[in-house]
From TrEMBL:
Species: Nocardia fusca
Family: Belongs to the glycosyl hydrolase 1 family.
Known EC number: 3.2.1.21
Descriptive protein name: beta-glucosidase
Entries under InterPro entries matching the protein: GH, Glyco_hydro_1, Glyco_hydro_1_AS
């Protein structure tokens, strides 16, 4: 066994034993009543994507440089070429029946040099946003999904003393251009995971970057509301089961007063070693630390209930939105745990309906992602409702997974049926989101 993996499993056993001992004395909470209600007609079903990961034809940026500097990374190429195929991809989303289509607007594409704006790049995003609207969907626009121009990298990235002003100059231009479409806004995607990437690859200072991202969020929030007072703005956290407040709490505290809804990305259940490594090293959300590959991390759909409850407790009454949720496979192969994409989706929606039934205000859910895409160094992890053999199929054909029909039916019916029961039983509480999942547990209705 390699030393890195040996340390991983030793940490797993150590933290797991202590967690079990802590939770052993917790009393069980009452179960919710049977007869699960459907989600109402105002619920925002959606799909998610990001600019750099899907568009292709990438300009010079921090991430194009990270790829060039790392021979072990898959070459980006044109990824799944959303740049040339956005209209057909948007039609695929519309055919599902979703009401929200999340995109990223890439700073590196819009501003290739200081003070230089690429009008052709703006016209590309004009076309994307207009196509989403014509298809009857609302855009969700992410301003920063971990990518910035090469000239910002030359200035030191998030260490640059002018980074916040440079960032705001671009983002204000984006807001001014698209506010009339009344998008849902995401200012910065998974800020703490962003920081983890940048400290590992871009030599950022974590504490300084956290301060600057919080300032950038708060100031662009004010600008968005100046332009459109009734706008809905968030920054989505990459939820870390068992350690959410320790990992994301400092960021949430800094931006809490400027969140119109709370964006949550939920993927994995509690993993003892991953949690302790994240606590020590700062990697969270989609930024996975050393250990098992991403498709082997534990998925526990019931954990989304606890993620929602955590933020319902933190922000009573405020709307919550699952901005990202999905399941990774290894190049589209069946998962070792037997979970299919369809079953995982249905089980997840069941737990969202349980949260709503228990009084938690959930406004929407985005599936990550519409198609497979570039997962920060590799095409191997597959998350798409539509799978794409990016490295072997020059045609980049979108092939539906079993979850396409499931998601379309689920949307049309407002969720899973009232008598639906998850395909898997509830995991032991210490494997979901301890200590909350042990101190205030829930169970699938028998």
């Amino acid at each position: 066994m390699r030393p890195r993996l040996r340390r991983y499993w030793v940490a797993s056993l150590t933290v797991l034993v202590s967690t079990v001992l802590f939770c052993a004395h917790a009393a069980a909470a009452p179960q919710s009543a049977a007869g699960l209600p459907r989600l109402d007609g105002g619920f925002l079903w959606g799909v998610a994507s990001s600019g750099f990961q899907a568009e292709g034809h990438a300009p010079d940026s921090n991430w194009s440089r990270y790829i060039a500097a790392n021979p072990a990374y898959d070459r980006l190429g044109n990824s799944v070429d959303f740049y040339d195929r956005f209209e057909s991809d948007i039609r695929l989303a519309a055919d599902l029946g979703v009401r929200v289509f999340r995109i990223g607007v890439e700073w590196a594409r819009l501003q290739p040099a200081p003070g230089v704006w690429d009008e052709q790049a703006f016209r590309f995003y004009d076309s994307v946003v207009a196509s989403i609207a014509r298809a009857g969907m609302r855009p969700m626009i992410t301003l920063d999904h971990w990518v910035y121009p090469g000239w910002i990298a030359d200035r030191g990235g998030w260490r640059s003393p002018t980074i916040v002003e440079d960032w705001l100059a671009n983002m204000r231009a984006v807001v001014d251009r698209y506010a009339a479409h009344d998008p849902l806004w995401v200012t910065v995607n998974e800020p703490v995971a962003y920081i983890a990437h940048e400290t590992g690859r871009g030599n950022a200072d974590a504490a300084q970057m956290l301060d600057r991202i919080a300032e950038a969020h708060n100031r662009i929030y004010d600008h968005i509301h100046h332009v459109r007072p009734n706008a809905q703005v968030t920054s989505n956290v990459g939820y870390v089961a068992g350690a959410e407040d320790r990992i994301n709490g400092a960021l949430v505290d800094r931006i809490a007063a400027r969140l119109d809804y709370v964006g949550i990305d939920y993927y994995w259940g509690y993993d003892a070693a991953r949690t302790i490594i994240e606590y020590l090293g700062g990697a969270v959300g989609s930024a996975v630390p050393p250990g098992p590959p991403i498709w082997e991390l534990p998925i526990r759909p019931e954990g989304i209930y606890f993620a929602l409850r955590h933020y319902a407790d933190r922000f009573p009454g405020k709307p919550l939105y699952i901005v990202e949720n999905g399941m990774a496979t290894d190049n589209g192969l069946p998962r070792a745990d037997g979970f299919t994409r369809s079953a995982h989706l249905q089980d997840t929606v069941y737990w969202i309906q349980r949260a709503e039934a228990d009084g938690i205000n959930v406004m929407g859910y985005n599936y990550w992602s519409l198609t497979d895409n570039y997962e920060w160094g590799s095409f191997r992890p597959r998350f798409g409702l539509y799978t794409v053999d990016t490295t072997t199929d020059p045609s980049l054909t979108r092939r539906p997974t079993d979850a396409v029909a499931t998601y379309s039916r689920t949307i049309a019916e407002g969720g899973v049926p009232g008598d639906y029961r998850p395909t898997r039983g509830v995991s032991p509480c210490f494997l979901i989101d301890p200590p909350a999942s042990c101190l205030r547990p829930v169970a699938a209705v028998p």
